Structures are given as structure tokens and as C-alpha cells.
User: Fold this.
Amino acid sequence: VDPPEREHERAQPGTPLYVHLPFCVAKCTYCDFFSVAAEGQDLDATLEAILREARERAPRGPRTLYLGGGTPSLLSVDQLARLLEGLEQVCGWRASAREVTAECNPESLDRVKARGLLDLGVTRLSIGFQSLRQPTLELFGRVHGVEQCFQAFAAARDAGARHVNVDLIYAAPGQSLAEWQEDLERVIELSPEHLSAYNLTFEEETPFSRWLAQGRLSQADEETELQFLHWTRARLAEAGLAPYEISNFARADEACEHNLNYWRNGAYVGIGPSAASKVGNTRAGNVRHVDRYRRRAQLGRSATVWSERLPSAARLAESWWLGLRLSEGVAPERTLAESGASPEAGQALLQLARDLSEQGFLECAAGRYRLTERGLPLADALARRFLTHLDRAARA
Ligand code: SF4
Assistant:
């Protein structure tokens, strides 16, 4: 049974736009994004449905545009042209978007595809290497090999791409620090403008978490993860890739604006199967099913199946939770003003930040709170305390 549809608040002109293209060659074993194997799927009909949703909901003149997934580079240049031209007619992104990113995978990024993306107005290519070890790529269920990573990067450069991100995962089962160091050095040699290095997480309902529970995989211990984290940050900073978020590193002026907006708790509109949106104090999400998504579009129904209105205090807590991931940290007064929460809620969270600073986990510089080196490894747990703190204060 299809869940009921929900209404959306209309986003302001300029709001960043995300487009979810949910097709991959095969499903990776660690991945919990919504994506399905492309074989047998009607990609053209899905693109039609996405454009139909865009006509209903895309903001005029988005500041940034992000094609994510899934594997957007899996689409042919013709399909990408239909999508991007269609979006242009709907919202005029060409005149407004300062940054247009397309996520790509090595198996589907050659020079022709990269040139096609750039000609269509994409400014930034994000390539998912994930690992430079063949056994790890196989364990991850990746369909490309190590050499294809380098070929895809070279194809992007040959085509003229000037803003390239490489995605990597560290602390894979059995991976030693020395192996990671060797792999990262090979990526640094490529001189990407941006690098995302994620600590492997075992997401629920993935083969990876099942294998972990069955004892077929081992998870790196905390001490090892810490070594990876500290070495990675120090080495990338030395290589000119400054950390601006826990897992994201960039040369000057190369931070991903689209993602910075998420961490700054800004508004965004997501279209496509499973895509989430946040406009004002309302969060909403689309149906996580390709056929149902298409059927809704054909029937002229909204793809949105859940929405929630956040109280202002919850939005404030969320801004702390997200903002502490950023090296720039959180400015308490501005964050409070943007959330519309009460001064009491603002004071309660500021006091928590002060307490955590006294314990050495946060520091305050130029009026902004951010994680210290000591707080960094505990980032998730510390940031979550801001989400639960107000609930607890209200119950006390
Ligand atoms: S290619 Fe990316 S989105 Fe697709 S299954 Fe693998 S990790 Fe997930």
C-alpha cells in the first residue's frame, strides 16, 4: 500500500537543490543510501518522473545543484542532458548555481562522460574511489578495480575538470595504518581539490552489519580508528587539504558549498526517490521505492510520504549537532536567532557547550564553539548530547 502523500512548504528562490538518482551497477555491501541495481529499470521513465517533481517543487535559481545517488555517472550523456536541460527550464539553475556537483563512479566515468558533464554545466566531479586495494574493493562489492580509479581521475582532468573530489573509506576490516598511508599518498599525488575520507561505519540492514554480527568481519578497535583519524588530518593539512568538516578536506575556496549548507542547517530541496528536504521548520521525505515514485508521478501525486514540523528548540539543538562537525564551529547567538527558539533554550545549550569546554572537549574562539583535538574522536557522541539535552532539561 502506498503511504499517503504530504504537502510541502514552498522553498525560497535560491534554495540549494539536490537530485537523487537511485541507480547503481550493483549494491555495495556497506551502503545504506537508497539505490537499486540499474539493470531492468526504466531510467528514462524515472527521469521523466523526477522532472515532473521538479516542476512542482524545485526552487527558482538554486545557489547550488547536486546530482547524487546512486551513481549519476551511470546515466548516458543524452540522459544527463535531458535531466539538466529539463531542470534548467524549470528553475533556471545555469544563471544562479555557483557550484554544480555530479557524483561519479570509476566504472562509468570516461573522458566522454566527463566532458559531457562539464559541457552541460557541471562544475565539480566527485569520484568514489573508496579503496585502492583490490581485495577491499571486492569486499565492499565495488564493481571497479584500482586502476579504474586512476583512469577515471585522469579522464576528469583530461576533460578539463578543475574541481574534483575523491571519496575514500578508512578503517576497513583488516586494513593496517601503513596500507592506508600508502593509499592516501597515492591520492595526494593526484592533487584533488577536495577529499572526503570516511571512517567505515556498519549501517543497519547492510550485508556489512550482518557479517559483523555473524563474526565474519572484524571492526577496527577505537585506538586504531584514532590513529587513522589523527594521521589523516595531519597529513592532509600538510598536503594543503585543510579539514573543514570531520570527514572533509579541501584546498582554499574548494569546500563543497552544497554540503556546507547542510551542516549549517540551511534549507534545501531534494527531489527523486527517497530524497529529503528541509524548508523552514519542516522536514520531509520522498517515497523510498523507484516504481512507487514513478507511479505517483504518473498519477500526478506528490512523491512526499513523510513530513514533520520541528519545534524551534529542536531546530536549535540540530544546528549545534550539525555545526559541531564543522571546523568553523557554532556561533551561539546567530544560531539561536536563526532557529527562533526561546532564550532559555539558547542558554541551556550554551551552558552545555561551556561545560564541555571545561572538560576539554570543546573550545571557544572568536565567539564560536568547536571540537578540540580531544573532542574530535567523540564528535558523534558529543554532538548527540545537544540533541538530547533539551529533552532532559524539559523533563527535569
Ligand atoms: S555506488 Fe555508491 S550509492 Fe551505489 S551502492 Fe555503492 S556506495 Fe551506494
Remarks:
- The radius of gyration is 21 Å.
